[in-house]
Design brief:
Blueprint lengths: L1 H27 L3 E10 L2 E9 L1 H24 L6 H19 L4 H19 L5 H27 L19 H17 L8 H4 L5 H7 L6 H10 L5 H22 L5 H21 L3 H28 L12 H4 L1 H15 L5 H15 L4 H25 L17 H25 L10 H4 L1 H22 L5 H11 L4 H32 L1 H20 L1 H19 L1
Antiparallel strand pairs: 1-2
Helix pairs in contact: 1-2, 2-3, 2-8, 2-12, 2-17, 3-4, 4-5, 5-6, 6-9, 8-12, 9-11, 9-12, 10-11, 10-16, 11-12, 11-16, 12-14, 12-15, 12-17, 14-15, 14-16, 14-17, 15-17, 16-19, 21-22
Length: 571
Amino acid sequence: MSVCLVYFFGFLVLSIMGFFMSLDFMVGDYSIVFEIEMFSINSCSIVMSVLLDWMSLLFSSFVLFISSMVIYYSLEYMGEDKNMNRFIMLVVMFVLSMLLLIVSPNLISILLGWDGLGLVSYCLVIYYQNVKSYNAGMLTALTNRLGDVAFLLCIAWMVNYGSWNYVFYLEAMKGSWEMNLMSGMMVFAAITKSAQIPFSSWLPAAMAAPTPVSSLVHSSTLVTAGVYLLIRFNFCMSSGMLSVLLFISSLTMFMAGLGASFEYDLKKIIALSTLSQLGLMMSILSMGGYNLAFYHLLTHALFKALLFMCAGCMIHNLGNCQDIRFMGGLVKGLPLTCTFFIICNMSLCGLPFLSGFYSKDLILEVISMDWLNLYIYVIYFVSTGLTVAYTFRLIYYVVSGDFNHFSLNMIKDSGGIMMKGMMGLIMFVVFMGSVLSWLMNDTPYFICLPFVMKVMALLVTFFGVWMGYEMAKFSLSYELKSFSLYKSSYFSGSMWNMPFLSTFGVNYYPLSLGSLIYKDVDQGWSEYYGGQNLYSNLIVSSQCFQFIHKNNFKVFLILMVMWLISLLIIF
């Protein structure tokens, strides 16, 4: 417990310092690059570079603040765990890996943080050590390894420039084929880490980790690493690459919203909402609004961390039950937790004037002003409507209605530690969006739209509320008796069959081929003509020699008789 408190206070103090330093850097509009010489061998020196600007400092302060609250929250949530110190050390390693990635202007040191995130996330996902955790951990680790391969290739190509400090070459080398190739590999690495289509299936699977870890992973660390990397690399990307990224991310946003509307696992619904918001960040980034993407990244981190904390509190009280059909009426037993839960959900929907509203509404209005095709406009507003729909469906199931769990229960707001950890975030969820809008946008965005387009976000929100309420009532009152309806809901709820395509679809043919080779070659023809055949021949020959050895006197007499007979015949 003392170790947890030390890390909690340390991260909190560092977060406050980082925030005020970022304000100073923002006002002065300057950045600092430190070069720390690690060691030198003859004329070769190994230098560690650190880039401090307003963006890296602000994001670091958010990561540290959220992780400090998560560590404090874990004091009670993981209090019964025998390996509490090991858990806290893994979380601290996770946060340090993310910080290394944030402040590095060098691809080698970014790779250390990038791989650190992948390795520690595997250890955290398999923390509960059961079959489901092992499968989820392996899927997470292997999907992220695909991005690591692209990262390593990018490092190899950057040898052409004579240095791995990418920040010096982004704008100077824009348009060169090497930089286009490297930016393509960076996009590939980012879409694996941020779980865009077709690598989305690992994100809901990673829910096997403890809830405090989910709170940290889905708010400000693992899944946001890809978005942050592309924010840094946005200056060097070609228009073709950005168009591909826009299509992939917009499709991800729609798919995740549709999947969450048919899901019944509480943590998985929140995970799919993260996937939807990542698609939103990636798509606005691919349209050139990297400041907007960063703005939404920060506001989303706050309410998503608190949303997972509230979910953890509910799961804790319901004896580790995550199915929303067994919940209902929790507002009576958990009034404070449900209040936080509803505020976070409203922020996710972009309800005025919570923190999510300032970034999300601004993104939608910038999209409405932009010179784009109808597909982008429609998919943005449909995805926003789906976000509101699955959020109100979730609230309907969890907060309102009758209690559907055990009649003998003791459901109450958790002890002081978990509540204080959640209270530390709630004020930021309410106010931080407006504060950041004043700080980050030195020149306000000038939005000039017709009345219908201006209120479109509000109309879509109201339509989403109605749709979510109707969906919840429909699924409660009507069983899916129609086979075609069942198939369509199953297809939408299973993320367009992506888990099957990325696991069973990929594994089935190599495993069946391996089985065939093992049966027909390893234990078949190669054994028949190889080891087994040699073994049987050696047995036969050794038996023959053994027979001669055991009967050597008889053999000698027989040979002698044969020799005498041959003499008689000849002479």
